[in-house]
């Protein structure tokens, strides 16, 4: 293989040369002997205007390319530069495809050479990266990328990235390279040309291999587990009460870990309340205002209590980001603060962890793998050299990769126990062992609730727990106690059962029967599976038609929804749905019975090898997955519980079977009371948003805490809201309940643009629907004719929430982030990262949302006022969450705009404002508000 590589990057006027797009800049860098040795760069005159958005993206103007050489003048020079070299680019299909097409127009050919895509190389060799966009990759690797989206700069950075990736490849042990060489044959890059000489070198010179740095076992290389230091038994470790002054004083333990430290009265108050609650075996709701230092406020007393009692305290969060924050930041701080050593661990649900036995087996089954599966296998091989936890959240898998994960994730059905050669290295069992010895166990609401209802506990026995983000506990319980299925889930179960490959459960079971000389035919099971598959296809098609026929609502992601009562729906179509469900039940039971009988015969046969046991365990997992889907159809369509609400969601423009079935309990308070609060000695629930108009009554009712004598307290934020934030309510806005939605949307767009254009500050605009967000986004885009604003829209701009936030933070000019749903909470934008918050509508849950509607109906049945006791409290808590996005530190200053006039024109509107901290509130025409309040704030 040539050791010369050329990286190419193009800037173009569009995506397709065949539709008139042309090259405007070429950047190329030559790499020889692992060093950059030459560069080629030129503007190219496209002989057409550069589109404004391309000019904005690249910074290349018509003046830059005017007088530059035409492409046919530089093509031969470029081909000479590339001669004899391997080709690489960051997204090869685009750069190679475009250049090839442009060369063809000139009667020239793209050179035949090896190719390497640094996107693909990065996905495999840097499997933990959040993003594989060039600018974000180079930023995370501390490479200075001065001019993103300019070809010469991008080519230079791609070359630096390629060299980094080659060094990473060098560091892989021989056994990993051997597996990669086979897996990567189906990938886009010519991996073999990179791996083969490296593998040969390590075989010829064993000293060049780094195998001793890893745990080499069977056919895998793993990161050597970090050995936990054995904690010395500490006699007379100080108690929390004895340590309070040393802990919180100006020169105390807490101050020693911060560069700048201020005593927070609220944090001290919270620590005392949490510890005393634990001591008294009580339940406690604590609303801790933003800036209190809530995490350490409960972690420190929890650690002291766990140390004193020698029993674990469980910390539960709702969101993964908070769990990661606790793990990566707060727990490390805690270990520095405490006057004693403490064990801490994170415990997640079993499906989060990789099953090494399954993965080892999957590596031998490559013949029918898709591109996504091969890519995921390669990623996991490299990730195993880096991970301590084996937790999929560390991995950046594609959607296809996440489907593959289901085949290799840990589960209880296929656990071979002592027969599993991987048992001592099992990530899930390692996490369980760590939890058994831990003082603090970090988990999530879902696992906390799973543990409550399962007979065999997952979390080690505990009696004291802190529930952070407690305003989500009811929602988490509703999700956990609910049920759902869809055609895709069934399809995955069928594909693993019988997909006409040697890897299907049926084929593996047939092989075992033959091998064991057991005379048992699976033909009737295969026929029953086919019948069940046909019925499932028909069922979801009929459900889709039915939902479109009787549509009564819409979700915020564009699906239609319909609440159904299975035994009271009318018409031949629904009757056909029930008949399909019954046939699925009959066929499914037959399949499970016959396959289970075959498995039993194999299990009872003599001389079961490890491979036999492994195959059988995998087969049991697949049968269990299929049985679960069959049971879900039965419970969702052929049973009816009046304590649940059942509904269908369908995508009107999606596939004819793009339909989803749901069931959720209408009220989870009794389940939480009986199965959780009654069984725990002390539960501390905390959040920044638990009260409505300073009352905890809503949370006490929804969580079933009435009979527990629950304590309540509100800890004030240390922020001076009166001087840090102003609430402005424009009076010149159309009625949100008006008949002309377009007029409202246009008016809101104009005001958003006017505020941001005037202030030149960053703004977050919060919506309650994607549809309105999209409309307002494009209206603002039209108003911003000179492209002076950076506009980032959830569901409009590509990328995850994390990526959109990163783009917003990095924007140098005035920027507007348009968000809904997840952007109302859990994002931290201090200082000049956010100075204006705009709330478009008061965040009432849609009245036609199935669970919400069922809760409203239930409230009416028991004589409650559903608006005052349900809808309004939910909206106020959501409103407070949104408000909390603005002020994140004592130095922040900002403005909140509320565009919903109901906040001042209705009798209930004051509840929203009264639930906020004491802040100055002004109402008036927008231009007056800008002149009198925004102008003054800008001057300050």
UniProtKB/TrEMBL annotation:
Binding site for ATP: 288-295
Coiled-coil region list: none
Helicase ATP-binding domain sequence ranges: 253-516
GO MF annotations, alphabetized: DNA helicase activity; hydrolase activity
Segments carrying motif DEAH box: 468-471
Protein origin, superkingdom: Bacteria
Similarity comment: Belongs to the helicase family. DinG subfamily. Type 2 sub-subfamily.
Function: 3'-5' exonuclease.
This protein's name: 3'-5' exonuclease DinG
């Amino acid at each position: 293989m040539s050791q010369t590589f050329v990286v190419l990057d193009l800037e173009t006027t569009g995506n397709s040369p065949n539709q008139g797009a042309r090259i405007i800049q070429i950047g190329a860098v030559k790499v020889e002997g692992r060093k950059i040795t030459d560069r080629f760069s030129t503007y190219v005159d496209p002989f057409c205007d550069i589109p404004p958005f391309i000019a904005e993206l690249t910074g290349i103007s018509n003046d830059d390319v005017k007088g530059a050489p035409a492409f046919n003048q530089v093509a031969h020079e470029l081909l000479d530069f590339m001669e004899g070299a391997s080709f690489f680019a960051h997204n090869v299909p685009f750069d190679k495809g475009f250049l090839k097409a442009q060369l063809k127009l000139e009667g020239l050919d793209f050179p035949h050479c090896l190719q390497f895509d640094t996107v693909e190389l990065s996905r495999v060799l840097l499997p933990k990266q959040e993003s594989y966009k060039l600018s974000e990759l180079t930023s995370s690797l501390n490479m200075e990328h001065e001019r993103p989206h300019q070809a010469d700069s991008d080519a230079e950075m791609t070359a630096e990235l390629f060299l980094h990736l080659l060094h990473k490849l060098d560091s892989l042990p021989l056994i990993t390279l051997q597996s990669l060489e086979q897996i990567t044959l189906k990938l886009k890059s010519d991996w073999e040309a990179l791996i083969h000489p490296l593998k040969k070198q390590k075989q010829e010179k064993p000293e060049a291999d780094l195998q001793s740095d890893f745990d080499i076992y069977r056919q895998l290389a793993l990161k050597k587990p970090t050995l936990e230091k054995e904690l010395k038994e500490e006699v007379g470790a100080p108690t929390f009460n004895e340590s309070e002054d040393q802990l919180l004083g100006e020169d105390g333990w807490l101050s020693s870990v911060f560069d700048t430290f201020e005593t927070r009265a609220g944090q001290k108050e919270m620590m005392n309340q949490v510890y005393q609650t634990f001591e008294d075996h009580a339940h406690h709701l604590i609303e801790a205002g933003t800036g209190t230092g809530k995490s350490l406020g409960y972690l420190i007393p929890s650690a002291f209590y766990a140390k004193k009692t020698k029993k674990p305290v469980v910390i539960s969060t709702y969101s993964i980001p908070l769990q990661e924050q606790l793990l990566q930041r707060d727990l490390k701080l805690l270990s520095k603060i405490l006057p004693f050593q403490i064990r801490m661990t994170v415990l997640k649900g079993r499906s989060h962890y990789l099953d090494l036995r399954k993965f080892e087996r999957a590596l031998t089954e490559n013949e029918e793998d898709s591109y996504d599966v091969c890519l995921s296998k390669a990623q996991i091989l490299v990730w195993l050299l880096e991970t301590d936890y084996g937790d999929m959240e560390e991995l950046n898998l594609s959607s296809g990769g996440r489907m593959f994960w289901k085949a290799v994730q840990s589960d209880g059905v296929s656990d071979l126990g002592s027969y599993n050669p991987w048992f001592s290295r099992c990530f899930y069992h390692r996490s369980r062992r760590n939890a058994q010895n831990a003082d603090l166990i970090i988990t999530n609401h879902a696992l906390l609730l799973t543990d409550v209802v399962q007979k065999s506990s997952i979390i080690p026995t505990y009696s004291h727990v802190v529930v952070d983000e407690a305003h989500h506990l009811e929602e988490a319980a509703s999700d956990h106690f609910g049920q759902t299925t869809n055609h895709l889930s069934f399809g995955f179960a069928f594909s693993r059962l019988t997909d006409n490959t040697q890897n299907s459960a049926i084929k593996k079971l047939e092989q075992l029967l033959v091998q064991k000389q057991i005379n048992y035919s699976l033909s009737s099971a295969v026929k029953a599976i086919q019948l069940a598959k046909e019925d499932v296809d028909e069922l979801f098609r009929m459900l889709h038609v039915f939902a479109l026929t009787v549509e009564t609502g819409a979700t915020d992601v564009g699906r239609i929804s319909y609440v159904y009562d299975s035994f009271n729906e009318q018409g031949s179509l629904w009757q056909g749905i029930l008949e399909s469900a019954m046939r699925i039940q009959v066929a499914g039971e037959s399949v499970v019975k016959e396959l289970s009988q075959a498995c039993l015969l194999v299990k009872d046969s003599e001389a079961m090898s490890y491979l036999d046991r492994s195959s059988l365990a995998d087969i049991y997992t697949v049968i269990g997955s299929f049985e679960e889907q069959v049971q879900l159809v039965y419970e969702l369509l052929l049973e009816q519980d009046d304590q649940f609400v059942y509904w269908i969601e369908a995508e009107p423009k999606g596939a004819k079977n793009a339909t989803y079935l749901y069931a959720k309990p209408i009220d989870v308070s009794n389940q939480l009371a009986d199965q959780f609060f009654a069984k725990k000695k002390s539960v501390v629930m905390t959040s920044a948003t638990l009260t409505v108009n300073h009352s905890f009554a809503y949370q006490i009712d929804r969580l079933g805490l009435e009979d527990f004598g629950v304590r309540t307290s509100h800890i004030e934020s240390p922020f001076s809201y009166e001087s840090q934030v102003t609430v402005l309510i424009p009076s010149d806005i159309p009625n949100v309940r008006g008949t002309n939605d377009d007029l409202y949307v246009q008016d809101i767009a104009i005001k958003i643009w006017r505020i941001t254009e005037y202030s030149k500050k960053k703004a977050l605009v919060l919506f309650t629907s994607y549809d309105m967000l999209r409309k307002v986004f494009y209206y603002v885009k039209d108003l911003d004719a000179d492209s002076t604003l950076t506009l980032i829209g959830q569901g409009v701009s590509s990328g995850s929430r994390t990526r959109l936030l990163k783009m917003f933070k990095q924007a140098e000019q005035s920027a507007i982030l348009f968000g809904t749903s997840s952007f109302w909470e859990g994002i931290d934008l201090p200082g000049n990262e956010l100075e204006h918050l705009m709330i478009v509508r008061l965040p009432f849950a849609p009245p036609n949302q199935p669970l919400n509607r069922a809760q409203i109906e239930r409230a009416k049945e028991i004589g409650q006022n559903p608006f005052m006791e349900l809808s309004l409290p939910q909206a106020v808590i959501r409103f407070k969450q949104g408000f909390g996005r603005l002020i994140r530190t004592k130095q922040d200053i900002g403005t909140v705009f509320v565009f919903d006039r109901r906040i001042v024109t209705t009798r209930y509107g004051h509840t929203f404002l009264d639930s906020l901290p004491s802040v100055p509130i002004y109402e008036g025409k927008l231009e007056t508000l800008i002149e009198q309040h925004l102008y003054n704030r800008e001057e300050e």
